[in-house]
User: What shape does this take?
Amino acid sequence: MRPGLSELLQTYFPDIVRAAPPEASRELLRAAGLLYFAVKGEERRRIEGSIDELIGPGTRAERVKRRVFEHIAEHYFEKLLVANRPLAFLRRFVKARVACSGLESLDEAMALGKGALVVTAHWGAVELIPPVLASRGYPIAIVLETRTPRLRAALERAAAGSNARLIIASRGDRVLDRIFEALSEGRALITQVDEVDAWRRRRSRTIRLFGNTLFFDHSLDFIAKRSGSPSVGIFCKRAGGLRYGLRCEAIALDPRLENVAEKALRLWERNLLESPEQWYEWKKWELMKADSIASAGSAV
Assistant: This one.
């Protein structure tokens, strides 16, 4: 398999992101991303086709297409920044550049003593959410995967110096066991609601989102109800010029009374439609659709 953008940037740019000023390394990664998609015409057209389908063809879709590839590259800048910069630098960076609102919802959830499910998506500056929460003293756990061993090793080194737990299936972690353990310890567990590779895709379980019928994975409901943990949604929007806005809002303080998975998916839908250029999983759109040929072949 030929390396994609993720593997290329994670292989050749960590040292640059570690040493160069953030403004410079960000611009270099953006330029590399635009060059990559200029060469990879088939991949670019696949993303553009998903944008047309989800948003509908027209002037808005064209604006999103012009901006989405820069945002995809910027995601990798943020990922490499978090993995390769010292914790002291990251604390200063997020304090100066991330404006937070609504964290009282997370405080209220954490005060119940059962940890909290922090639900986000592959949207915006999602990589900055863990350092923001950690810098404010929240004990955190993160469910993640990495494309390269080098990135995983860098993240493991960074986590070793902080009050953060990484949960990584590919290294042999028993993900559900580690999730319940983290919540029982009173941690804020960060997970992504649009992680389609982990969805249990069944045609008997669907939800209407974005004007389409998507597979509906109930894992969040299972985790929330079994743990009794409250849930909040956190999304971190890029505001331009290395500035960000983090927004937190309650999903369910009592998971027995709410459909956590449905509310989380609708929160993702709202944020994506607000700024679709900041979503970076466009290539997986077909896998999410219950009526797509690709999804039909892989559904279980």
Residues 5-298 form one domain. The chain has 14 helices and nine strands. The longest helix spans residues 59-84.
